[in-house]
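Reference record
================
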Amino acid sequence: MTEENNTEEQVVLVSFEENYWLLEGETYISAVLSAEEYYPTPVICRTYADMFDLQFSLPEGTLVGNLWAINPLIIERLHKLEHIVIEEK
């Protein structure tokens, strides 16, 4: 269950190769994983060419290792549902 609404929090992921992490939208992590509850769409996925660029782009004090990891099968489902937008960085 999703709905586009620009006034609420977005779900933002970051990725490198086949690894995905939740950067923003922790409120909706359960909904994104289960697809049984509401979450705002589209989910934004910022894809990086290397891990250094990804880590450098994160907010100060944020480490990739401290973010929620997202299973690639969840990303595949988001693609099939057309609920994800990929932004190459």
